[in-house]
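Regression check, magnesium ion case 340:
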Amino acid sequence: MNTELLSPTSEALARAGELLRAGEVVAFPTETVYGLGANALDAAAVEKIFAAKGRPGDNPLIVHIAEANDLAPLIACEPSARARALMDAFWPGPLTLIFPKSAAVPSRVTAGLDTVAVRMPEHPVAQALIRTSGVPIAAPSANRSGRPSPTTAADVLEDMAGRVPLILDGGPCRVGVESTVVDLKGDTPRVLRPGGVTRAQIEAVASACEVDHAVLHPLGDGEKPRSPGMKYKHYAPRGEVTVFRGKKAVENIIRRYDAAQNALILALEGNLPRYGSRRCLSLGPDAQSMAANLFHSLREADRMGAQTILCESVESVGVGLAVMNRLLRAAAFRVVDCED
Ligand code: TXA
Ligand code: MG
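Current build output:
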């Protein structure tokens, strides 16, 4: 299959809409990461997403909508007052909410679950694509399963060339990590996957918010994840990633670097001078920029042929929680604590 890479002109959007209505898959930008979209109401089209990604069939997809009216046909009952408050506060934007699903949503989308994850992206190209196609779009991140999520069209092409007919190029993604996934089943909203909307932001609207234990910890043997996506190896480049935490992280990274071959350091901008002439990529000045740069840097590490990737960390608060959730998985929980 020939893969076209197009700027999101009105002609390109019309072509993408046609492809989606015809049951094909199109990659498109959102404010979080690039998505691999298909008509969410067409089980055969959704099947092509799983095939293109090599995604395990038991990992459900997020359904993307453009406006509030698009929600009702996807869900089994009226959203609760709390759900409505969160939607009013954060849609369009990087928040995914889980609802009981309606019969219209094929079980292929939800991997057999009786709930459906829905999000309203804010990115103008994603918005335009949903409106032009006239259908809700089921879309996971547009990476091959297990690889870092793509935050540029070139990253998508790297994984999807020959596997999808069209990639819309909307430039680099602003947020850089995926949406916050929130389960509203219990008494308190629960973050299953941290992302662009922070716990504090949710607390400000819903008065309380829990973060699932699995966000920062590996699942124990036989432990069942609340979100199927939590159990898979994720976001990993080919090089081996190790995360360094604590006051003496820089010194420890330098020691490890000097003992390794073909190593690469991912560092906060302010620490770069301390590494001298060692090979480094900057993650920018703070947690926000780290979120925006992390996935792209992990892919860049592969392009540079790095075998050992040594990465600094940030505090697990605010968007830093999303950064550490992705980084710990990319590192398969290889963490060095460097307090003294
Ligand atoms: O920002 C994003 O959310 C991006 C862009 C493209 O919108 N999409 C994305 O999709 O990250 P994906 O498929 O890579 O991640 C979806 C996550 C998975 O961890 C999945 O297990 C979880 O959402 N999920 C989906 N439906 C669910 C459900 N019904 N219950 C619990 N978790 C669900
Ligand atoms: Mg993904």
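Comparison notes: Residues 140-141, 149 surround magnesium ion (ligand 2) (CB under 6 Å). The CA atoms of residues 72 and 336 lie 47 Å apart. No diff flagged against the previous build.
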